[in-house]
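Box 3.1 A note on notation
Throughout this textbook, protein chains are presented in two layers. The first layer is the amino acid sequence; the second is a token string describing backbone geometry. Keep the layers aligned when reading.
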Amino acid sequence: MIPKEVLKKIRRIHITTSRMVSDVFSGQYQSVFKGRGMEFDEVREYLPGDEIRSIDWNVTARMGHPYIKKYVEERELTVMLVLDASMSARFGTTQQLKSQIAAELCSVLAFSAISNNDRVGLIIFTDTVEKFVPPRKGVRHVLRVIREALYFEPQHKGTNIAGALEYLNRVSKRRTITFLISDFFDAGFKHRLSITNKRHDVVAVAITDPAELSLVPVGLIRFYDPEANEYFGIDTGNQRIRREYTENAQKRIEERNKLLRSVGVDMIDVHTDKDYAKELLKFFKKRERRLA
């Protein structure tokens, strides 16, 4: 039996994100991801109004008058949500933790998919794959995806992006739209990401909290690293320490972005203190312009 407070939160996210999808993202999603895969249907005679670029010149030469290639759109796509549930995701200094933002992003993307009759699946990972929800259609299935994204309790603490991508390649034989949702506190996954992006259309959704970029000068603070299970102290009143912290954070972000660009993976840059809907819309519009 699911607790009432859990059902209440799932219902709130359901209402909020489904309204967001119907008002904003549904058309954007369709224009970006629909019609990208086309299957050859037949060759037929050219009719006034047909696109010149559709003419099959080989058949035209044989028949003596214009023929065009006709294609049909592959209507059904599969969207895979690959969700980082490591302990670093359970961090936040604003109104929501990174993990809560990630769950809402899963909801928006899942409802966008089913509004276009696509299938949605979920992989939750830490330093191992902990949960796999096979792709299906329908609101009931999406509500399960939201519930798992919100309340799944991982058994491990670390992060292994390469392992999650390897698992995706094993369970998804056909091409998918894959959203990799993580804070990307990991290394050594470039090769696996490159291979995966050749088989699937991978989009990285990077979630960052403002405290990971700079320190507020409030004196000596004791931090806990849940993935390493270690405590350490930082004197935030020290200007040099704050500057080095910011420089290291910027370097990490730049290296992450460079890595994603080098393997041709698009990125949605989400911050816990900003409206993620604007970043999603920016991504959809950027993709739409590129496909135009």
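The chain has a mean pLDDT of 87. The chain has two domains: 4-32+75-291, 40-73.
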